[in-house]
Amino acid sequence: AVSDRAPAPPATRSLAQVMDRHVAWQETGTGPGHALSLPALFAVVRLIASNIDQLDLTVDGGTVPDWLRLPRSTGGALDQGDLIQYTVSEMALRGKAFWLAERTGEGWRLNAVHHGSVGVQASSFGTVGLSYTFNGEPIERLSYNGYGQERALIHIPYLVTADAPQGTSPAVETWPSIAGYLAVEKQAATLLDGGTHSGGRLETDHDITAESARRYRDQWIENRRQGKIPVLGAGLRYANDVISPRDATWIESRQANAMQVASMYGIPNSMLSLSLAGGASSLSYSNSQDNNRLFRVNALEAFTSQIEDAISPLLRAPGRNGGEEQRIRFDYTEWEAAANATPDTDA
Fold first, then answer.
1. What angle do CA 36, 40, 44 make, to 5 degrees?
2. Which pLDDT tens digit goes with each residue over 25-82?
3. Which end of the chain is more exposed for a tag (fewer CB within 10 A), N or C?
4. What is the pTM of this model?
5. What is the DSSP letter of 226?
6. Are 41 and 175 contacting, i.e. CB atoms less than 8 angstroms apart?
């Protein structure tokens, strides 16, 4: 059962309130949810979530119902885009996301569910199965034919494994490494980003008073500001601060960690501008198309196919055969057109 419980969220809230609550909960402990503070992982989650959010939802053989197209029109707390982004981030960080579906007339009310409110128990019998609680009360999972259910939990796993039938993710399975990346990032930030490097300094082998040091410093700064050539005296010399071999090692470690995080989620390294050659990519048009294809197949579809499988039963009705069943799909048509567009060579 899930042990990292959190208070039940308010019935109606904005995405900002949801994320504020989410972040506040994360900062009380450690674990995959806290890993979003790692810049590389934040970039990965943002890249995947924003691309999926831009995809249109379609329905095979029908139109997208309002309760899915505009979830707030039937009482949902989040708009469709916010609901998708929240779901993708939960899948990426924790390996699973949950929705609560409640019937309203001819449609459904859809709400994202905080992971701390859901308990998941694996079956103790020979076959793999799961049972659920919501706020401590048993709840049924959305069945293959969700038409007959008035209230159901929608479980959307990222990756199902033998050891994690409830779902897992790279952030969960490689948490020791992620924690190591966070340690490297923290140390590198102290060395490189904390303002400890001045860019240069004035040195002397002679003893000088603090007042003289301030006067020389201020004169140097004023001359540079006015574009004048500084003249050094009293045995002073200018020493330029350059990155030390130790600091260079931290930079390499940060870049290597970022590339590792990207690869865990199936993202080509160049898509995060992680090229070690000056931080820029020199991809050809053909290679760029290949990256876009790999990004869709290895990164985006790992999320969208699971979401499609989980929520499509909301459209199913009794009496239909397999060929008549409707299915919710993410439409990649416009995304592929934009991703494969010929770059402007006149610039």
1. 80
2. 333 345 666 678 888 888 899 999 999 999 999 998 789 999 999 999 999 999 999 9
3. C
4. 0.71
5. T
6. no
d(CA 91, CA 50): 14
Determine the pLDDT at residue 157.
Answer: 96
108 pLDDT above the threshold of 80: yes
The two structure tokens encoding residue 342: 């010929």
CA-to-CA distance for 77 and 112, rounded, in angstroms? 8
| pLDDT on residue 197 | 45
Given a contact cutoff of 8 angstroms between Cβ atoms, the answer to whether 133 and 113 are in contact is no
DSSP line for 25-70? HHTTS-SGGGGGGSHHHHHHHHHHHHHHHTSEEEETTB---HHHHS
Angle, helix 175-188 to helix 39-53, in steps of 10 degrees? 110
With 0-12 / 13-18 / 19 or more C-beta atoms within 10 angstroms meaning exposed / middle / buried, residue 319 is: exposed
CA distances from 264 to 30, 63, 301, 308 (A): 20, 35, 14, 22
Close Cβ partners of 282 (under 8 Å, ≥ 6 residues apart): 275
